[in-house]
Design brief:
Elements lengths: L7 E10 L2 E6 L7 E6 L5 E2 L4 E23 L5 E8 L2 E9 H5 L7 E6 L3 E15 L2 E11 L5 E6 L2 E7 L7 E2 L9 E7 L18 E2 L5 E9 L14 E7 L4 E8 L2 E6 L9 E7 L2 E6 L5 E5 L2 E3 L5 E6 L2 E8 L2 E10 L5 E7 L7 E4 L9 E3 L10 E5 L2 E6 L2 E6 L2 E6 L2
Parallel strand pairs: 11-16
Antiparallel strand pairs: 1-2, 1-10, 3-5, 4-10, 5-8, 5-9, 5-10, 6-7, 6-9, 11-12, 13-15, 14-16, 16-29, 17-18, 17-20, 17-28, 18-19, 20-21, 21-22, 21-24, 22-23, 24-25, 25-26, 26-27, 30-31, 31-32, 32-33
Length: 413
């Protein structure tokens, strides 16, 4: 466990208008944002009024104390104060100004409303609700500690090969690459440890900056089998492909509906993104969804489930499918923004040239590849077979049968 000396920091928020505060002191992160709203005037709350300060992007700080500077009327003023961190109420104070201070006052005085300490806070809300006229808030004072710099153990199997420690809080660590070994290729780092699996895992890549939220481990991930080709296809021939927007990292997905199609993040193992493209000539092709057999075509200026001859523009690694309507050309474009702020694939009036569009090969599905965090265990999975909707994973003297989410183990015949 990393030991760190934590120093207390202070940030204050002074009420300026009914919808703004002035922030001073040490702000905890670059993502920090403060909003303030009072339903009456500036910091004044009558019966039923509310003044709310909300802080977001606190970066996992530890809050030591919260002090509010309040005043009342000469002989009255009551309310309720609530402190909520990350959706959880951590303090609540109800009563009159007299209850809190021992006397009413028209001069601002400090009141500590929280002092127990709470860790890893990302969002803080302080709410003052008036119940008897009137209370007034001038300032919020928050004493906190920044989270420590964390350490990351890098592991190959059960062996720790290196410990990386952040230079300071939120600095992150730069993940290294490892040399390939025997028939295994290093592909990245995983937050979870696993044996041999056939589905591509979630990975942090070498040369990426990783931001730990605690002292933790990352396991190296190794791949057996042919490496995935991440390049756009340069030589066109009839076959199965993904049609992608490489800049947006999205791929055409599914079949047409309501004149358009879905898109999703590129996933070469997702059968919903795989299309059989028949090149009728170097500059014309048809597109068919492999999983359903549905053709991808057009009707007017909208996409339709019909067999249509697409025109093909191909230059280097760039491949574009498009159609003509009169003198205009319309490109089959993944990543169009509609009027509701949703992204989709459709026909976009554009010149078919100089785009990020192209074809990628799908991941092979012959089962002759696997991933593992334990390269010291050779060939944990010998092969993966498919029998209808049943998957059979063979290793050693055993077969693991997986069907409709259920698993059972057999000894191989």
């Amino acid at each position: 466990m990393l030991t760190a000396i934590l120093l207390s920091l202070v940030m204050t928020f002074t009420v300026e208008t009914k919808s703004s505060v002035k922030a001073e002191g040490t702000i905890p992160s670059n993502d920090f944002d403060a909003t303030y709203a009072c339903t009456f005037q500036k910091g004044s709350v009558r019966e039923g009024d509310t003044a709310t300060l909300q802080l977001r992007g606190l970066g996992g700080i530890q809050i030591d104390s919260i002090v509010l500077y309040l005043k009342s009327n000469k002989s009255a003023g009551s309310g309720e104060i609530r402190v909520v961190t990350d959706g959880r109420e951590v303090a609540k104070l109800s009563g009159s100004y007299w209850d809190w201070y021992g006397a009413y006052s028209t001069a601002y005085r400090p009141l500590t409303v929280f002092r127990h300490g709470t860790h890893s806070v990302e969002e803080l809300t302080i709410e003052l609700v008036g119940t008897v006229n009137s209370l007034y808030i001038e300032q919020y004072e928050i004493v906190y500690q920044a989270p420590p710099a964390y350490s990351v153990q890098l592991k190959i199997g059960d062996e720790t090969i290196e410990v990386l420690t952040e230079a300071n809080s939120h600095a992150g660590v730069l993940l290294p690459s490892l040399p390939d070994r025997d028939s295994l290729s290093f592909v990245g780092w995983s937050e979870t440890e696993f044996g041999a699996i056939t589905a591509p895992p979630a990975l942090w890549l070498a040369d990426e900056r990783f931001y730990p939220t605690a002292d933790m481990c990352l396991w190296s991930v190794w791949h057996y089998g042919e490496k995935e080709d991440t390049n756009l296809v340069a030589e066109l021939e009839t076959g199965s492909y993904l049609y992608v927007n490489s800049h947006a990292n999205v791929a055409l997905t599914g079949v047409p509906y309501d004149g358009k199609m879905d898109i999703d993040l590129i996933d070469t193992s997702n059968p919903d993104q795989v299309y059989w493209i028949t090149f009728l000539s170097p500059d014309t092709a048809t597109i068919q969804h492999v999983q359903t057999g549905t053709f991808i075509g057009w009707q007017g200026k909208s996409l339709a489930a019909k067999e249509s001859p697409w025109l093909v523009y191909h230059e280097g690694a760039e491949t574009i499918f498009y159609m003509r309507s009169g003198a205009d050309t319309y490109v089959l474009w993944p990543n169009i923004l509609d009027t509701y702020g949703e992204l989709y694939a459709g026909l976009l009036k554009a010149t078919p040239a100089n785009s990020p569009l192209g074809l990628r090969k799908p991941r092979p599905t012959d089962g002759k590849e696997w991933f593992t965090c334990h390269p010291e265990v050779p060939m944990a999975v010998e092969e993966v077979l498919f029998n209808g909707n049943e998957r059979i994973v063979r290793f050693g003297i055993y077969e693991l049968h997986i069907k409709e989410g259920k698993k059972y183990l057999r000894i191989k015949n």
